[in-house]
Design goal:
25% strand, alpha+beta, 303 residues, 4-stranded antiparallel sheet, globular
């Protein structure tokens, strides 16, 4: 199995574990494949020993296994970025290493790799993620105890959590108090209490898309940056998903290498702050809206 297929499999496992609202067609769209391929993956999961449950027509989930088996809902919390890390670990092995072949053939064996085990177990928000994942899977309400707002005030929030962001830093939830969908920072939650109360506003569950800089919104703005080696390394370290939108540029005169980042962003704040922080290493190209944002920001805060 080649690396793109490994990543697609990990992403599908994550989607089928952390959120049971996606139909087979929606999963196919998210993974850039066909619904027939998704069904083949589901059959592969069954053949590999995973428990797959049909929630309703066209919707399937990986369910909790017996006590004597590994509970996939407690083990798999791979975001797109984390899946990339796992793939890097696998690919770092020598091609002659039998373990590399086994890992590709049997994804469950990935938990025998110490760095991955440590990465999962040391997550500071692991318990809250697990509780929220249970609430999402079971379509139940939850109380976010002592949730700290941006003003620093702590308050309990009664919500219907329905999806995580790609990096598990936030959870999308319908706030029953305010009557609208919001992003809640998981690190700001003191404790999650899953209730027996079922969702009552599922038709109103909506989430905005998120760009590679982890900014959400409904409006896309196309931006293009040219980065030097330092900017490129820092970008990939902080925002690994940027790799998919980056191209190395060849220098005709043998000068220093550079990379082009061309992508759509939901908000200019994320990419703007990155460009401003590395102003002598980043060049904005053919992006008038981003250039105007940086100019306004600099005039307001830097002078």
């Amino acid at each position: 199995m080649d690396q793109p297929k490994v990543e697609r499999t990990l992403r599908l496992m994550k989607l089928m574990t952390g959120n049971t609202t996606w139909t087979v067609e929606e999963l196919a769209d998210k993974l850039g494949t066909t619904y027939r391929t998704i069904y083949r993956y589901i059959e592969t999961f069954r053949d590999a020993g995973f428990a797959v449950r049909k929630v309703r027509t066209g919707v399937y989930e990986l369910v909790t296994l017996g006590r004597q088996e590994r509970d996939i809902s407690r083990l798999v919390y791979f975001s797109d970025e984390e899946a990339g890390i796992v793939n890097s670990l696998i690919e770092s092995l020598d091609n002659t290493n039998a373990l590399k072949h086994n890992l590709h053939q049997k994804l469950a064996a990935i938990y025998d790799v110490a760095p991955v085990t440590d990465f999962i177990s040391k997550g500071s928000n692991a318990l809250n993620v697990r509780e929220l994942s249970d609430a999402i899977r079971e379509r139940r309400c939850a109380v976010l105890h002592d949730f700290k707002s941006s003003s620093g005030k702590a308050k309990d929030r009664l919500v219907e959590p329905f999806a995580f962001t790609t990096n598990y830093i936030h959870v999308w939830a319908y706030d029953l108090g305010d009557g609208r969908c919001k992003l809640f920072g998981i690190a700001r939650i003191g404790e999650v209490e899953v209730l027996s109360r079922e969702w009552s506003h599922e038709k109103e569950h909506r989430r905005e898309q998120m760009d590679i800089f982890r900014m959400s919104g409904e409006r896309d703005t196309h931006v293009k940056l040219r980065l030097d080696l330092l900017a490129r390394d820092l970008l990939l370290e902080e925002y690994p998903l940027a790799a998919q939108d980056m191209t190395e540029m060849t220098s005709k005169d043998g000068g220093n290498p550079s990379w082009k980042l061309e992508t759509d962003v939901c908000s200019l704040r994320g990419v703007g702050r990155f460009a401003i922080g590395l102003a002598d290493h980043v060049q904005v190209e053919d992006s008038p809206e981003l250039a105007a944002y940086i100019k306004e920001f600099a005039g307001k805060y830097l002078y």
